[in-house]
Amino acid sequence: MLCSLENQSFKPVEIIVVDDASGDATAEVGRKAGCRVIPSSPLPEGWTGKPWVCWQGANLAKGNLFIFLDADTFLDPEGLAKIVSTYMEGKGLLTIQPYHRMEKTPERLSAVFNIVTLAGMNAFTPWGKKVKPMGAFGPCNVCSREDYFHIGGHQKVRGEVLESLGLGKQFLMANRKVRLFGGKGAISFRMYPEGIRSMIEGFSKGFGTGAKAMSPLSLIMAICWITGGVGVIRHFLHSLILTDSLSFLLSSGMYLLFAFQFHWMLRRLGNFGFLSALLFPIPLLFFIGVFGLSFLQIFLLGRVSWKGRVVKTLQRKR
User: Where are the domains of the chain?
Assistant: First the structure.
């Protein structure tokens, strides 16, 4: 992310890096890039990590426009200019889901997570602006200093695992606009290059919570779509076992239709390629397994693991 910021035609006033004792040399890289590196204060009771570092950075920032970026995001050369220009058109809270760039085959297992994330946020629906968003995406959020502190900033969502959902809701409650965009051509990211284990940890950390936050209609539609995909897989395999030509022809047609729909959605979200859509049963079943694990960890065990740390998801009543 820092390398891409150096190459922007539109230069930021300052770049703040809040180091919460990460083990990936974040502070050192930030200093070499000329950033303002701030060691994080100890995590207070009731706070989770990301809201705490964002809150500290915001309170020390000099500018009037805040852009919160995850460390794994990358800006295109004109990306910052495009983001700021888009923000100025409508202001409020601009929240962007970066374009997902992948290099290894296992990373494409995230396909269904990408689709459900956007669907669950009420983003890019046929109803357009008539449907209010459910919150904000996590990797990139833009707002004014005035709006941020008016709504209480990350302090308002200090204990949430998916703080961006809560932040978006705070803006909506304060009658501030929340606008959701895809990042293709402006900002991208590479999620979980470390492998499948980190992917499972990352999605388990918040997907059960995200499902709970979805509107009933969006949740029902997502369940129906996933169930439909599982049904297509079952009919296809059943026709193969029966060796019934007509059944195989019909189930193959259904399979290909679902695959083309899969591809139509994925091509706007990342460089998944058509093969990911053609083999959609693999990412679909992977999603179901990880979602079940997420539900178990968040709502039954009350904790999830993330980058060697344990994050509590249930607060005990005193």
Answer: 2-195, 218-312
Distance CA 297, CA 300 (A): 6
Nearest Cα neighbor of 189 from 72, 294, 31, 71 is 72
Distance CA 100, CA 5 (A): 18
What's the pTM? 0.82
Q: From residue 295, how far is each of 120, 121, 289, 300 by CA, in Å?
A: 16, 19, 10, 7
CA distances 200 to 17, 140, 305, Å, are 27, 22, 10
Please tell me which residue, 159 or 214, carries the higher pLDDT value.
Answer: 159
Res. 316: pLDDT tops 50: no
**Domain 2-195: CATH class, spelled out:** alpha beta
Strand duo 309-312 + 65-69: pairing: unpaired
Lowest-pLDDT choice from 129-138, 266-275, 308-317: 308-317
Give first-to-last CA distance, the chain, whole Å: 42
